[in-house]
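Usage

Read records sequentially. Each one opens with the input sequence:
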Amino acid sequence: MSIEPQTEKSDFPNPHEARFHLIGAGISSLAAAAFLIRDGKIAGRNITIYGDQPRPGGSLDQAGSVETGYVARGSRVLEPHYVCTFDLFSTIPALDGSRSVTQDIFACNEALKTNAHARIVRGGKKVDSPAFGLSEEHRLAIINIALSPESVLGSSAVKDHFDEAFFSTGFWTLWATTFAFQPWHSAVEMKRYLMRFVHMMPGFSRLQGFMRTPYNQYDTMVRPLARWLEQRGVRYKTGAAVTDIRFERMEDAQRPASLILERDGAVEEVKLDSNDYTIVTLGSMIDSASTGAMDRPAPFEPNRRGAAWRLWEKIAEGHAEFGKPAAFDNRVDQSKWVSFTGTMRDPAFFRLVKDFTGNVPGEGGLITFADSGWLLSITLPQQPHFIGQPDGVEVFWGYGLTVDRPGNFVKKPMAECTGREIMMEVLGHLKAEDKAAQVLDNAIVIPRTMPYIMAEFLTRAPGDRPHVMPKGWWNLAFAGQFCELSDDTVFTVEYSVRSAQTAVYSLLQLDKAPPPVYKGHHNPVVLYKAFAALMN
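and closes with the structure output:
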């Protein structure tokens, strides 16, 4: 099955002459470049990736050192049915060259399967395989959201479909902290998640079936992909913020005519002709992110919009088919969180958590402190988490979803806390305040405030997100978390990769389509097991 472009174009791109400009240097653009080379036979030298950061990676970027502390923005969930992602990475060799990245990830998860024994902690005690605790009314409401057409759910929020008691259930605590949902987020997106992950319900309380990467997702996925692209001549323009795209009309359609970018304090115009194609990653989950330190909170700077949001706002003026960025970048109180990364130079903390949970690092996934005013979660990944991480150093990360409430042990909002204070809160929930001196004296905990990290979950109406191929345009496509794809779910690597694959196949008018979204709800056995799990 082929993907039909939104506007018919009689001539097909010539692989030897076509030039591609990929705006944004996150996983969407990296994936698009790979599909252009692998499936479109486009020469790497004819592909340019523009990014305003010093290196590619976007929200998967992870960095740091044992001296300054490692920084991980977080990690996107993976599961075996991410067909576009694993198709892409089956082509990409892992950094050691021994096998593909896809093979590397599956081998890692075969060797150590996720099986959380302390997914929830209440009152300082772990809850092994926590119950969903749903009433009959709650189960019916979940089924109603899952079965309702998106047109019926419209721009409603999750909270519009449940009573207050639902948000105190074990199901909601597990759901919210696994997927980063809030009561005011989109009911349409919850429907998509229910359908997309229905096969995960039987093991949901232990995170069974969810996958992780051998190292952090930057080292495991971004670095091998970026290297593969560089080896094929793809050009990166780092520190280059595209601030505008100028357009011109051709016959019965429009196309990009030039890119305006700022780099090293200078403004540059890149002229485009009919052989130039542009794929724009819209918006950014990590825009305006700020970094704190052990003794300094991460400042909240929602008005410091970065290049991605400003560009979308600019090009959407007068072009309704480009979507409505204000639907996503104008409600930071509903889209922010605080994450933090701990670099531990003493084994005391990891030993404490291992003894408390009964899980070795990498096995347990998330640990959520359900009593926490911040709705605080941590995860201890398999070590080393960073390539080059020294022996005797361990790294973990965590996040809070309700960051404007006071903590239970540190009586101030998480958004105002230093790394030291966040670590004190974690130790308090583990009933390990007596270990504070030993842990804190050998730790670097770095908080990160991210105003737009959950923007893609906000309530939306039809037209707020543009189609990958906007109607009435040639040589232009959109990608990333803020374009419209049917069935699939945002806040996943899979959504970014699928959007890139769709954009490439459409622009090149290839006689193929991305593999379909996995639909476990079409399998009666999967449905039966999911309904049985909801009775827990």
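Summary fields computed downstream for this record:
- DSSP finds 15 helices and 18 strands in the chain.
- The two ends are 41 Å apart (CA to CA).
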